[in-house]
Design brief:
binds S-adenosylmethionine; 7-stranded mixed β-sheet; two-stranded antiparallel ribbon; rRNA processing; globular; about 240 residues; RNA_methyltr_RlmE; alpha/beta; rRNA-MeTfrase_E; disordered N terminus; Rossmann fold
Length: about 240
């Protein structure tokens, strides 16, 4: 790796990887982008586990979904950037955590976050999350993304499916007035989930926070103010 070079101002400061290191071109480009990414530097400096933390910070600065005392469920939480932000902003603590996170990957403990290591698509994951939170959530956030296969269409379909399952979960568990935020993809088959959210929330917004790379098709859906579930109709009695 060459030392960072200074040119005309801080923007010219760039780390370059030598071609002969035996890396594929695509890996070299990824590494260079990573090493020169200001959000990566900020996440290290500010103690966040991922640059993704800044996506939630930027979305929350704009839409104010995380308030002191807010109960949050974080889907697809590892390595934990969003959970760190959520726990800090809602003031959660280990005695009575108001942030519950799930991922099938391991995640190191975060103060104020109760973690469930499990696949969210397992049938009993929703009940386990609610039992851990001990109440209905005010906010459901999902940054879940399927592992990439290299086949773009397949990746889209899998991540859209996760978004749809997360939306269905939110509609089934949120408190009235609660909010839902989830990762989606531009150009994905998102009409089903969009219709479902529009029906159940006061408003639905597409959000591309500055921390989300311009070249990435990633986008977030923010559904504001859950309208609540209709009461189940009373069953006619036999008498
Ligand atoms: C982009 S990362 C999340 C980053 C996180 N928001 C942060 O700030 O550190 C997506 C995560 O979704 C998780 N994931 C994908 N499918 C999942 C599933 N079915 N159940 C649980 N976690 C899942 C992945 O394991 C991965 O850790």
């Amino acid at each position: 790796m060459k030392k960072p070079t200074t040119g005309a101002g801080p923007r010219a400061l760039k780390t370059r990887i030598k071609k002969k290191r035996g890396l594929k071109n695509s890996s070299r480009r990824w590494l260079e982008r990573h090493l020169n990414d200001p959000y990566v530097h900020r996440s290290k400096a500010e103690g966040f586990r991922s640059r993704a933390a800044f996506k939630l910070i930027e979305i929350d600065d704009r839409y104010k979904l995380l308030k002191p005392g807010t109960k949050v469920i974080d889907l697809g939480a590892a390595p934990g950037g969003w959970s760190q932000v959520a726990a800090k902003r809602v003031g959660s603590n280990n005695e009575a955590p108001t942030v519950v996170a799930i991922d099938y990957l391991d995640m190191d403990a975060i103060p104020g976050v109760a973690f469930l290591k499990m696949d969210f698509l397992e049938p009993d994951a929703p009940d386990r999350l609610i039992a851990m939170l001990g109440a209905a959530p005010d906010v459901v956030i999902s940054d879940m993304a399927a592992p990439t296969t290299g086949h773009r269409r397949t990746d889209h379909i899998r991540t859209m499916h996760l978004c749809e399952v997360a939306a269905d979960f939110a509609i089934n568990v949120l408190k009235p007035g609660g909010h839902f935020l989830a990762k989606t993809f531009q150009g994905g088959a998102e009409n089903t989930v969009l219709d479902m959210l529009k029906k159940n929330f006061a408003s639905v917004h597409h959000v591309k926070p500055p921390a989300s790379r311009t070249e990435s098709v990633e986008l977030y859906l923010f559904a504001k103010s859950f309208k609540g579930r209709a009461e189940a109709p009373a069953q006619p009695s036999d008498e």
